Amino acid sequence: MQVYLVGGAVRDQLLNYPVYDKDWVVVGATVDEMLEQGFQPVGKDFPVFIHPKTGEEYALARTERKSGKGYTGFQYFASPDVTLEEDLIRRDLTINAMAQADNGEIIDPYQGQQDLNNHILRHVSPAFAEDPLRVLRVARFYARYAHLGFDVAEETVDLMIQLSTSDELIHLTAERVWKETERALAEETPFAYIELLERCQALPVLFPEWQCLIENEQHVRTVLNRLQRNKRFGQNVFSCLMTSATTQQPDDAALKLIAEICERLRTPKAWLQQAQQVRQWHKAIADIESLSGAQRFEIVQSLDLLRRPQRLDGVFECCAALHELNGTLLERMQQLLTALNQLQAGELIAEGFKGKALGDELNRRRAQICDQI
Predict the structure, then answer these.
(1) 282: burial class by Cβ within 10 Å (0-12, 13-18, 19+)?
(2) Cα gap 306→309, rounded to integer Å
(3) How far apart are CA 284 and CA 198, in angstroms?
(4) DSSP label at 361?
(5) pTM reported for the whole predicted model
(6) What does the pLDDT look like over 1-13, one tens digit per residue?
(7) CB within 10 Å: which end of the chain, N or C, has fewer?
């Protein structure tokens, strides 16, 4: 039995990137031998195990054969006779097809280090064209490394075009498409994801609503570059993309389209809500200085900021990127929320207001506060 560190951990180690997850491949072992050592089996399609102490994934070396449509249409064969090289050749890119032995030796049968040094994303074998998910994976890696000067080998782009112009992409589930997209939007250069999907003709198949972003590429890149890199970065990128993609549409039509896109992709509810809020209110927030108190309070109510003040940061960051706003406006809006929260209904009840009159007076005074700050 021989154990090797494989895939992204080896790649990022060589790039001096932080390594967060480690995957291992086991050569020369059986399922029974793994179980005897305390490994916990996971997955039904092929033998993958969880280490009893580290929780890291260990997979038996395996080969695969295309047997149907989509990324699930494969039959896997794991055996002690499968070599490390046979396992590595089934991987997507040469930079992901390297392994490291326990003595630190890098096993690199498909010249992954050379492509890493030359900043090239290249497929390992023609079998690349059997898995449509690899179109999205390569685009995601491009979004991760484009700022380092990486590009995709032309022959790999050709295979991606082959997949995009067949019927393979339509067999991808919404969950898989969204998982890759969500990760790509959080990468260093998220627009590179869209650009490569357009280059390989996958964008009109998977994200036809984003075609217009290519026509305004420079503007969209500028907007995304203004966003702060924080835990909300990917979500904020998505909101800005949705606003940019629907800018020529009336508000109602734009909000409906965003809802349809999010339903198709099965995005988290919070992503849908923020994308619609940014699209609906970004112009008003950018022009908030000239609004009346009632109009300002309408924004507060629509965003439900009195109950959910945490929404303000994400929405404002997107608006700031779309309109190049400065941070002093955010500070004023935070001060406004503080002042609004200091006005309590109990004070008005003590003055004799009740029922509908209480609600009307509360809103009148809140609008008055919004006019003063």
Answers:
(1) buried
(2) 6
(3) 32
(4) H
(5) 0.90
(6) 899 999 999 999 9
(7) N
Q: List the one residue out of 156, 145, 46 whose CA is nearest residue 92.
A: 156
Neighbours of 284 (CB within 10 A): 16
Phi-psi region of 111 (alpha: psi -120 to 50; beta: other; left: phi over 0): left
Measured in degrees and rounded to the nearest 5, phi and psi for residue 72 equal -95, -5
CATH class of the domain whose range is 1-115 = alpha beta
Cα–Cα distances in angstroms (integers) from residue 137 to residues 71, 83, 118, 322, in the given order = 12, 25, 20, 28
Given CA atoms 205, 207, 212, 214 in this order, what sign does their dihedral have? negative
Look-up of token digits 């895939």: 7
Q: Which residues contact 8 (CB under 8 A, 6 or more apart)?
A: 19, 21, 23, 96
Terminal alpha carbon distance of the chain: 70
Strand-pair partners of 152: 121
pLDDT of residue 51: 93
Burial state string for 260-281 with b = 16 or more CB within 10 A and e = fewer than 16: ebbeebebeeebbbbbbbbbbb
Mean pLDDT score, 48-56: 92
53-88: pLDDT as tens digits: 999 999 999 887 755 554 555 577 888 999 999 999
CA-based nearest residue to 199, from 157, 230, 236, 162: 157
Contact 100, 10 (CB under 8 A): yes
Where in the chain are the domains?
1-115
What is the mean pLDDT of the segment spanning 344-354? 90
Q: ∠ CA(235), CA(237), CA(238), 5° rounding? A: 65
Specify whether the CB–CB gap between 186 and 193 falls below 8 A.
no
Say how far apart CA 247 and CA 223 lie, in whole Å: 14
CA distances (Å), origin 95, targets 18, 57, 108, 115, 199: 16, 20, 9, 7, 21
> In the block, which residue shows the tokens 């075609």?
211
